[in-house]
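Handout, section 3.2

Students often ask what a structure token actually looks like in practice. Rather than define it abstractly, here is a full record for Polysaccharide deacetylase family protein. The first block is the sequence as you would receive it.
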Amino acid sequence: MALAQPAPGQVQPLAPGTRAATRLQTLTLTPPIPEVKTVEVQSNGFVRAAHTILLLPTAQATDARATQLALLAAERTYRAAPDLLEVDVSVYRSGNYAGFGGPLPLLTLSVPRERLATLRNSIKNDQYDRIWINPQIEAPEPVGVVVEAPEKLPVFEGTPAEIKAYQLQKSLGQAGGGVRNGLLFQGNPARRQVALTFDDAPHPMYFPLVLDLLRRAGVKATFFVIGRNVQAYPYFAEDLIRGGHEIANHTFHHVRLPSLSSAQIKAELSSTNTLLTQLSGQKVQYFRPPGGRYTTRVLNVAKELGLTTVFWTDDPGDFQNPGVETVEARFDKHLKPGGIILLHDNAPDGLLALPDLLKVAKQRGYTVTTVGGLGR
């Protein structure tokens, strides 16, 4: 019997040819909770975080039951590993669970270690701000083709005349730096300054670890977030803003945009803008097309929505799990004044390489900033 195909945009698979990531450490809860599928743990070299996944059968899939089990799972995860920086819990329906990037969870819960002692009372009194309960109102339907590979070299698709005009824009943008006609290829090539950017955020296990590393280094970054991920983990977007980082648009479903109509492209971008503005109170300024694929229509829609389309100059390929040393070597090779660095918040090799990447940039005299900080 043929397996049902996932809806377009609902899965974010690894790129073809990607080396398998190192298997994550897992924890065993005592006493066990039957609904727990797995408890995965990741370190950033300083601290560890855990992501606990629970699967509920349809008959048990109520807000009350999901909350009860999420609370119990968080407590037992800390009991199994008291040193954790944070425990994040995702509760799904067992019948349609398809992993991160599939149908949204029923409930998500984030428990930093310092909030554990007051967790039960806060939830009981409806005063806990790091819980999301799915309203069961579907987000905009995914459209187009799912991105089957991470961002590579940016690829403009169009007629020969459009490509020629775009190449001229790109050459001028790279030579002088700065925003030109709604496009940012790089910052000022005369300034020893680079922008640090992360795509695909937020992931419930990796994101807190990335923020921890940036805090330790005193560095601010720009996060190109996926709308559906922010919808399920809104408190992470709030953490991002409170930390002084910059939030930007990476579409709602992480789909390739060139094959979509202008209306569909607008829906992907505007729905994400609306969500991010509601959470941050700030106007969204920057956009990056998933897969690095775009056309004149994509760029025009982004510009009409007041978005600057941001590309990159330094892609260490962390999403391909090439090894920490390879990520560091690629980063070092392409580091240049006005550069824009592309990393991902859910890539283990990028996470572990990040402290050394920031150290190398500092040793070579670079200031690391956000996209908006370039040129300041």
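Discussion prompt for tutorial groups: Residues 262-280 form the longest helix (19 residues). How would you have guessed this from the sequence alone?
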